[in-house]
Design a protein that fits this description.
Pfam families: DEAD, Helicase_C. One of its GO terms (cellular component) is nucleus. It is an enzyme of class 3 (hydrolase). InterPro entries: DEAD/DEAH_box_helicase_dom (IPR011545), DEAD/DEAH_RhlB (IPR044742), Helicase_ATP-bd (IPR014001), Helicase_C-like (IPR001650), P-loop_NTPase (IPR027417), RNA-helicase_DEAD-box_CS (IPR000629), RNA_helicase_DEAD_Q_motif (IPR014014). It is a single chain. By secondary structure, the chain is an alpha/beta fold. It folds into two domains: about 260 residues, 3-Layer(aba) Sandwich (Rossmann fold); about 160 residues, P-loop containing nucleotide triphosphate hydrolases (Rossmann fold, 3-Layer(aba) Sandwich), CATH 3.40.50.300. The protein contains 19 helices and 16 strands. It has an eight-stranded mixed beta sheet, with helices on both faces. The chain has a six-stranded parallel beta sheet with strand order 11-16-15-12-14-13, sandwiched between helices. Helix 16 links the parallel strand 13 and strand 14. The C terminus is likely disordered.
């Protein structure tokens, strides 16, 4: 057995003195931390003072904090004192349904958000948040996963953009946050991606947030360069994003705030596999927001697989429905060849000044070119947007339509979804689309942001397979149904999921959400 180590008396006393000092400092530190925790709890209790009983059910300090404070964000105290009767009235008036395990108070005024003034500059021209913004902001700002279901033109882009800025700001304070994009927004079309990027850029301008838009149809070099220079937000279409990821030019492993915009549309056009691959390359602890115009089984399955205990907010009906701000007129033509003549008649009425914005939809690219040339010969300032146009031509046409230099635009369904074109007074459907979903999104280009609009649709015997669905959409919006349309019948064919057919199982909201870790084959 080794001999005990000899420690000189002076060294021993010095060691004991240091131990007492360390113990005293540790005790003082614990006392200070307890005091700070107590003070933090007191402040939180003050914040929830006056809140309704439902909110006060969250008793632990940790749960209370997660309900009110996340990412360094604190709601304005006026939100906590909002009477429950006002909340109930607001939800009823705007047909809002919130499903989930917690109660949140809608932000009905921008001042209630508690967001910095530089964040709110982007909404300075709006009076109040839209229903989808008011009901989802408290949820997304608290760090929760979210499913938002609302019609087109409801303000979904800003619903996810402002919370994204708060999230970025919080991650910047985190010294351990690795470099790379923090926010990823995935959208089905180039035009929708560009629109989201514009809003993100405008909102982030005041706080130094850098955004890049990634889409196909243009060279990759500029997009790669923008990513290398450092970005906070990437807005992308699935195909081009996958390409850049596979080339090693775009690393999304640091993404902790993911948005799937127009999720139903992305699944409709076959992007499910790409979306799953994209999600699997983001952080496992990410916050995920999914926005959709409808709530079909395919979207429910995706939400079930990838969202963690999401709150679901529905504005209006979760089924396909047109905005009540749009006056729908359906005119049945006996002769399909008379469409162009009918269009000329409608434009003489709806575009009499030749200055107001009118959007004309057709089904085929060649049809768009033919009608564009036809109207040009009649002296109209008209542009067209369709798949045969280059991305530069499409972007230029959109800008000319937006600034009013060419107030008449012909478009295929490439422009039907998500485009936020201001003050489109009239939409004319010369040729009915392939699906009733595309019809609803086409007419949704007018009547946006609470404004009124008119959609005039030409219907022929060639479109009779859609008569039942169209009759339902008209009835849901309390619009008159022409007798000529009723003659085609009101039968609606049961929809089948593109991958699972008629045997698709509705996952609903009951099962607990899980996250999937993919192997090398995915």
């Amino acid at each position: 057995m080794p001999a005990a180590e000899y420690i000189p008396k002076e060294k021993k006393e010095k060691k004991e003195k240091k131990h007492k000092k360390d113990k005293s400092e540790s005790k003082h530190k614990d006392k200070k931390e307890k005091k700070e925790k107590k003070e933090k709890k007191r402040k939180l209790e003050e914040t929830v003072d006056g809140a309704d009983k439902e909110t006060k059910k969250v008793k632990s300090s940790e749960a209370s904090e997660s309900d009110i404070v996340a990412n360094g964000y604190t709601a304005h105290h006026s939100l906590a004192s909002l009477p429950q009767s006002d909340i109930d009235a607001y939800y009823k008036k705007n047909a809002i349904e919130v499903v989930g395990d917690q109660s949140y108070r809608p932000i009905m005024e921008f001042s209630q958000s508690g967001l910095p003034s530089n964040f709110l500059k982007v909404v300075k021209n709006f009076k109040n948040p839209t229903p989808i913004q008011a009901s989802t902001w408290p949820i997304s700002l608290s760090g929760r996963d979210l499913i938002g279901i609302a019609e087109t033109g409801s303000g979904k882009t800003l619903a996810f953009t402002l919370p994204a800025l708060v999230h970025i700001q919080a991650k910047r304070r985190d010294a351990g946050n690795k470099k790379g994009p923090t926010v990823l927004v995935v959208a089905p079309t180039r035009e929708l991606a560009m629109q989201s990027q514009e809003q993100a850029e405008a909102a982030g301008k005041e706080c130094g947030v850098k955004t890049v838009c990634i889409y196909g149809g243009v060279p990759k070099d500029a997009q790669k360069k923008a990513i290398r220079s450092g970005v906070d937000i990437i807005v992308a279409t699935p195909g081009r994003l996958i390409d850049l990821m596979e080339e090693g030019a775009c690393d999304i492993s640091s993404v902790s705030y993911l948005v799937l915009d127009e999720a139903d549309r992305m699944l409709d056009i076959g992007f499910e596999e790409a979306i799953r691959k994209i999600i699997s390359n983001t952080r496992e602890d990410r916050q995920t927001l999914m926005f959709s115009a409808t709530w079909p089984e395919s979207v429910r399955k995706l939400a079930h697989d990838f969202l963690s205990k999401p709150m679901r907010v529905t504005i209006g009906s979760p089924d396909l429905a047109a905005s009540h701000n749009i006056t729908q007129i359906v005119e049945v033509l006996d002769d399909p060849r008379a469409k162009e003549r009918k269009l000329t008649e409608l434009l003489s009425k709806y575009h009499k000044s030749r200055k107001n914005r009118v959007l004309v939809f057709v089904l085929y690219k060649k049809e768009a070119t033919r009608i564009e040339n036809y109207l040009q010969r009649q002296g109209y300032r008209v542009v067209a947007i369709h798949g045969d146009k280059t991305q530069q031509q499409r972007t230029e046409a959109l800008n000319q339509f937006k600034d009013g230099s060419f107030p008449l635009m012909i478009a295929t369904d490439v422009a039907a979804r998500g485009l936020d074109i201001p003050d489109v007074e009239y939409v004319v459907n010369v040729t009915f689309p392939l699906t009733i979903e595309d019809y609803v999104h086409r007419i949704g280009r007018t009547g946006r942001g609470g404004k009124k609009g008119t959609a005039h649709t030409i219907f022929t015997v060639q479109d009779k397979s859609h008569s039942g669905e169209l009759i339902n959409v008209l009835k849901q919006a309390n619009m008159p149904v022409p007798d000529e349309l009723l003659k085609f019948g009101g039968t609606v064919k049961k929809k089948e999921h593109s991958a699972y057919g008629a045997f698709y199982k509705d996952m609903g909201d009951a099962p607990k959400a899980t996250k999937i870790v993919f192997g090398d084959d995915d």
